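Q: Sequence in, structure out?
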Amino acid sequence: MTAAVTTLPAQDRSPTAARRLVSDALTEAGLEVMLDDALLLVTELVTNAVIHAGTDVELSIDIGPGRARIEVLDHGPGTVPSPDGTPVDATREGGRGMFLLDALAREWGTRHFPGGKSVWFELGVTDRVIPRPMPLRPPTRPSARPAVSWLLGLPADLEERLSSTQLLSELMHRLCDAMGLEEGWLLAEAAGDPSDWDLVAAHDVGRVGPDPDDVRRLARGGADVEMPDTAGLLVLPLRRRTGVFGALVVGDASSLDEGGVALARLVGDRMGVVLRD
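A: Exactly. Output:
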């Protein structure tokens, strides 16, 4: 049995750091089968803590034979709902995280105490059978090319439990984690108004993204292009039969070779399919 507690600051990069810690711990323990669910859940919980509590976050990872228990603690005021069998409203504040916990965790719960609160969840190796080959995570060496199956291959039963927004967010996190990208945004046409583009998904939800109008103008040119006057942001247009309808924006583009750009474009195409569906 192994256990570790890490304190993360109330910063935009903390969800990414939490994903890396959980990924390393599960992989070292030979529990890669849990990675898909664990990464989704810890990303959501740490993001909620950073945004809504605004305090340091304590991430606890407790691994035993065939199971993992992960807890996210913050020092902000307020309460979080407990699992009581009541249907979760995913549209309410924090509701998406509770919805994912209900859908994916073997068990989950909350703790409240003077000066803080926490949410924990437990996963087991028998909770899911993943009918796809290894590897389930990107290589740890930054120079290695991540497996396309890991970038795009969420299990079918997991995809069925996620909304399109949740799926797009996870694809964005996987791309940025695997390629060592600091920034990533997905923008697309607003419903009913092709001239108005909205932010759909982001790697770091608190970071200010590029201007949607600037992205739209560049993407409508139809070619991959770096945004001027930015720190190497690359705009990858998303296309459908009637033309460009969105774009994946990633950075720093200088860290991507030709193969890396091709992989980012492949993930963008996958995102485009989700948006069109």
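The beta strands are 2-8, 57-64, 67-74, 107-113, 116-124, 183-190, 193-202, 225-226, 234-240, 243-251.
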